[in-house]
Amino acid sequence: MCVRRCVITVGDLGEFGVVNRITAQLPQGDAVMLGPGDDAAVIGAPDGRVAVSTDLLIEGRHFRRDWSRGYDVGRKAAAQNLADVAAMGARPTALVVGLGLPADLPVSWLDELTAGFADECGVVGASVAGGDVTRCDLVVLGVTALGDLGGRAPVLRSGARPGHVVAVAGRLGHAAAGWALLEAGVSVDTPGLRAAVAGHRRPCPPYASGAEAAELGASAMLDVSDGLLQDLGHVARASGVRIELDPAAFTVFTTAEPVAAAAKELGADPLEWVLSGGEDHALAAVFPAEVSLPESWQVVGRVAEGSDVVVRGREIGHRGWDHFR
Amino acid sequence: MCVRRCVITVGDLGEFGVVNRITAQLPQGDAVMLGPGDDAAVIGAPDGRVAVSTDLLIEGRHFRRDWSRGYDVGRKAAAQNLADVAAMGARPTALVVGLGLPADLPVSWLDELTAGFADECGVVGASVAGGDVTRCDLVVLGVTALGDLGGRAPVLRSGARPGHVVAVAGRLGHAAAGWALLEAGVSVDTPGLRAAVAGHRRPCPPYASGAEAAELGASAMLDVSDGLLQDLGHVARASGVRIELDPAAFTVFTTAEPVAAAAKELGADPLEWVLSGGEDHALAAVFPAEVSLPESWQVVGRVAEGSDVVVRGREIGHRGWDHFR
Question: Buried b / exposed e across A20-30, counting CB within 10 Å, b at 16+?
Fold first, then answer.
């Protein structure tokens, strides 16, 4: 009979038990020349360059254990870093992950987290090739993604020129709609609302569109992590241009079922989520006007001379997320 | 007159102010093809592979702001990751750093931290090429190092064979001696004691000895982060061998002034610090017996058939650091 304490925790396993348990669950892909277990991993960088991006995710700030399962936290943490690499036009090859874990964290939560990382990496053929485990009162994830540019020039934020078009691949507003539903504490009992909450818990970045955009000749690109207006502001500043968005072009995003259903439920303006909500990790790119874009890219505006990002006919309010405000 | 509040904090600057302030202080070396400011950095990987290692450092667990200045925290955080890459036989090229910062952190502390990272990278010609900033109640550092193997095979933990010799480059016991002095709260008023405390605050890894060992034909190598006995245990297990250490060979380490002075002050056994103290980030390597070792490598034992790490004539007690015990 187990009465007092049935849950196996991270503290029960100890540091090396945790490391062994995690690494046993991580398949290693072709790009990994040396995986977990030594001082460093060795990853293939076939064109002699490696794209690298890192993010820190803190429990209570980037995720809540009462709102998201370990599996979803793992998928989201992997996704946001893999998307950063894809936004350079690179193919993600590997992650390395530093884990801060409370000693009383159930091992089942850690197993879920690991599975989430492995599955999201599997979507793009990448692997978790190494990491570090330490004790912390909160769950903290330090995630670094590596990627291979395949001989292509990296797509920067600074190449947008007047006359180019602005396009988006992936979702906008889902994560913000789901977050608003969770914060409001409303009953999530329809497919549309459930999809919005799922969108908050687990983004779905259009990874392949990154290399695709680079091959199509994109002049600028980034992933939408803090909100489209704010993130396009980085492109406008880096490129020294004005970006004019067409509100009518966002109908495809505002009428997507999860966003529309959540807006109706909360009496909110879905365009606000679409323009200012972060964490969907869509890709926003700028292309010369003559480029013929595939269906995965939705044109939402154009580049003009000047500065700043404007939405025609609309006052812009909140512009996204500052981690210290 | 400034009465209530004279200290500029991270919260005053905001996320983008912090990022701009940090990046303005970071010189970029030759290996950096694209530095901070985009979704990812791009680092040269001239031989088509990249060595990559990551660590998470948590305030209160890996450093204390009342014991170490921001500058020393930056140097130490950089050093321990650069040493991991060096321990593969690679030349460190770049770091990316995720920073979790309290809003009330003085900007002066952040400036010091940044300078520490930049200076430690400068020792090996590497650069902080990118990062991420987010708010956190504690200072959290997620540090990832990249390195170039220069066409050499990575030196793993698994290549030690009976008859090989075990050697150490760098310091042992300094960080443990300094930590013991700080914890005891004794007056640190002699050059030897001050040097021990400095050794705790700032390791001095023998970076160049990593590539040197690879070129000399080292069969196994790692950096000493958790204590020599514990870390050599990884080599013994991975290689399927027994490692026999000669206590007399450690005299050069136990009589080093900082270690000897601290041991005398506290009535402690210096060999315990030398064998079990972590955080000096020495390199421990195994070489075929016929290799002629330069002076930077001190032979401390040999490899035999069997398992485990033993110190001839000595019972082994505490074996190093487990982050969950």
Answer: ebbbeebebbe
